[in-house]
Design brief:
binds iron/sulfur cluster; single chain; TIM Barrel
Length: 451
């Protein structure tokens, strides 16, 4: 458990009773409360010894360290998770899916892969889903490896440098140092040799060990050396070991507050199997079981998309429904003849309806009623999407001033509100639309054709 205000107060000057106010707070306890809440910093109290300051900093820092790979808008930050199970709170920092590129691949394959990672982006519920990193692996051709590293540096995508030859690894690191790459693997055998170069130009470190005990000894050694941005690989050899090791790491970090394992994890499904479908299943397991970086041998649209959707769902706050703003949205060049559709503000509903209205190529207004992020049926059954709530929203929206024929289309799933909405909106014709959004293009073209 992070330090509580009472524990902090006891360590403040005079047992927390000095109350000199120099920190800007009226009492030591007030300062302790703010420090525990993370809204002030230890340096505000000038009377703390370095030892107490460091103790507070360590105790108050996240149980799993936040590690950032790359720079700028596309940088990937992983770690700082606070719970083991998603239903407890939320998972905060989604993992990055990395595509492996190796110097033993042909130039054609390599440039195809680089293009894929740039092109494979999907807009889902208003969020852009995309793979996060390129992992460049050394297999013996130094010149080509460094050339690939240089090429990938031109893309604005975080890089994982995978190279067991330390000289080549640090040459590659120097080429892209300003991109803040993750360098991997640092092991118990190469650590001493690698340390001076790591310290000379610090970037995140990927530690590789044979199992949990060995990785702990490595993290402790790096901590002594002042190196904190670490990502862990315990070298699981199969799916069972992957789940076991990832679970042990997450539990030890959060339940036992064991700082030696309080780091994000890197996972290599690409090395666990040569079967592409199995690899996808291993990646899915990594997404669910705490991986921070997941390296795939290649990316294909048809398997990447469901993986990114899984990732999006796992890392969405389960306590907050995905919702869009209540307002009138316009699609195409609307005019006074354009139809008006109404539905609720559950994001998935909005994007499904919006995309079908766009597909229809018929300019239309989409009136989105705030229903606290619930879908149509749930919103209707809880009284949030009924005539009495929709009517006042439509009147207040001003849409009536923009159209000539007052026709409003309600979702087929909410057909039973037709009568009550007509009562709320005198002079309007309420039409029942299809039950499925996919039927909207045909429905709209028939409606516009008839009217
Ligand atoms: S400056 Fe330090 S000693 Fe003074 S009130 Fe604040 S916390 Fe207490």
């Amino acid at each position: 458990m992070p330090l509580k205000a009472g524990d902090i107060q006891k360590k403040l000057p005079d047992g927390g009773k000095k109350n000199c106010k120099e920190c800007g707070f009226p009492t030591c306890f007030a300062f302790a409360m703010k420090l525990a809440a993370g809204t002030t910093t230890v340096d505000k109290c000038p009377h703390l010894s370095e030892e107490v300051k460091n103790d507070f900093i360590e105790s108050l820092s996240p149980l799993i360290r936040l590690v950032t790979i790359g720079t700028g808008d596309n940088a990937l930050s992983i770690g700082e998770e606070e719970v083991i199970y998603r239903h407890e709170k939320t998972f905060c920092h989604p993992p990055g899916i990395a595509m492996l590129i190796c110097d033993d691949e042909t130039d054609e394959v390599i440039s195809k892969k680089i293009n894929k990672i740039k092109e494979f982006q999907f807009n889902r519920i208003g969020q852009i889903l995309k793979p996060g990193l390129i992992a460049v692996k050394f297999s013996g051709n130094k010149e080509k490896y460094l050339d690939i590293v240089k090429k990938t540096a031109d893309e604005d995508i975080p890089i994982v440098l995978i190279c067991e030859d330390m000289t080549t690894l640090f040459e590659a690191r120097n080429l892209v140092y300003d991109k803040n790459p993750l360098i991997y693997p640092i092991t118990k055998d190469n650590l001493d040799k690698a340390l001076p170069a790591i310290k000379e130009k610090p970037t995140p470190i990927g530690l590789k060990a044979k199992g949990i005990d060995e990785i702990i000894s490595l993290t402790q050694r790096l901590k002594q050396e002042g190196i904190k941005d670490i990502v862990l690989d315990t070298s699981p050899q199969n799916l069972k070991e992957l789940i076991r090791d990832h679970s042990i790491i997450r539990r030890a970090a959060l339940r036992q507050e064991f700082r030696g394992l309080g780091y994000p994890i890197i996972s290599f499904p690409c090395h666990l199997t040569t079967n592409k479908l199995q690899e996808v299943l291993f990646v899915a397991t990594g997404i669910i079981k705490y991986a921070g970086i997941i390296v795939m041998s290649d990316l294909e649209k048809n398997t990447l998309f469901p993986l990114l959707v899984l990732l999006q769902n796992i890392y969405t706050d389960p306590r907050v429904p995905l919702a869009v703003e209540e307002k009138i949205y316009e699609f195409g060049v609307v005019n006074e003849e354009s139809p008006v559709l109404v539905t609720c503000n559950f994001a998935l509903t909005y994007f499904a309806v919006a995309s079908e209205v766009e597909n229809s190529r018929i300019p239309a207004y989409l009136a989105i009623k705030d229903a606290e992020g619930l879908c149509v049926l749930a919103a209707w059954s809880t009284g949030k999407f009924i005539g009495e709530t929709i009517g006042p929203f439509i009147k207040k929206s001003g849409i009536a001033d923009k159209i000539k024929n007052k026709k409003i289309i309600i979702p087929g799933l909410a057909a039973r509100i037709k009568g009550e909405l007509e009562d709320e909106l005198p002079g309007w014709e309420v039409r029942v639309g299809p039950r499925e959004a996919s039927e909207l293009p045909v429905f709209l073209s028939q409606m516009v054709g008839k009217s």
